[in-house]
Amino acid sequence: MKIENLYVGQTISNHKELCKIxxxxxxxxxxxxxxxxxxxxxxxxxxxxxxxxxxxxDGRGYRINEIYPTPNKRSDGRSSGNNIxxxxxxxxxxx
Length: 95
Known about the structure:
Blueprint: E1 11-12, H1 15-22, H2 30-43, E2 44-49, E3 61-67, H3 87-94
Antiparallel strand pairs: 1-3, 2-3
């Protein structure tokens, strides 16, 4: 991801254009878009906007509000061991 190509106040009309600017591969699948939005949120804050430029949850465009000097940490749902529920019992059985 080439975050250097973004600037504060920039408006991007759709996801395809965003991928072009960031120089990442464009995929039309919903999961790919969601993961790229999560990744983008690590580097900058943005609003989703509609064609008129109004902030909307279901808007297709993006407006860059702030670019962070250092990226935020990536959140990982497996940080607690993923299956910690029986980890202590299994560890005792193995040893």
